[in-house]
Amino acid sequence: xxxxxxxxxxxxxxxxxxxxxxxxxxxxxxxxxxxxxxxxxxxxxxxxxxxxxxxxxxxxxxxxxxxxxxxxxxxxxxxxxxxxxxxxxxxxxxxxxxxxxxxxxxxxxxxxxxxxxxxxxxxxxxxxxxxxxxxxxxxxxxxxxx
Length: 146
Known about the structure:
By secondary structure, this protein is mainly alpha-helical. The chain has helices at residues 2-28, 33-44, 53-60, 64-76, 98-126, 128-145; strands at 50-52, 80-84, 92-96. Helices cover 73% and strands 9% of the residues. The longest helix is centred in the C-terminal third of the chain and has 29 residues, at 98-126. One of its GO terms (molecular function) is DNA binding. It comes from Acidipila rosea.
């Protein structure tokens, strides 16, 4: 049981460090962490480059009306564009503006290295027997470059 608790604590700590990094990066780019997550959902969740309010609510794990408010604030900030369906006015499609796309691209670049670091940490935690071999590979690479 102690090992399970250590693993859970380590996982939660690593996850929280990543979230803190992501929140800080979003603020440095002039958006809130929630707006960053919204733009990420719009651009990447469905594979279409856009998403409905319902799809975004699922992605963000928030209520529909909360996401509708977040989208409205993002529209006012010039991050996303909202378009109502001609066939069914209940459906609203959300897409990134050029400003939103530029900010999201910058955030993606900032996150790329951090995601790799976190992924490696999770893999090492899941497979501690491989941790030593990964460290040995890094040492061999350093020796090779020297």
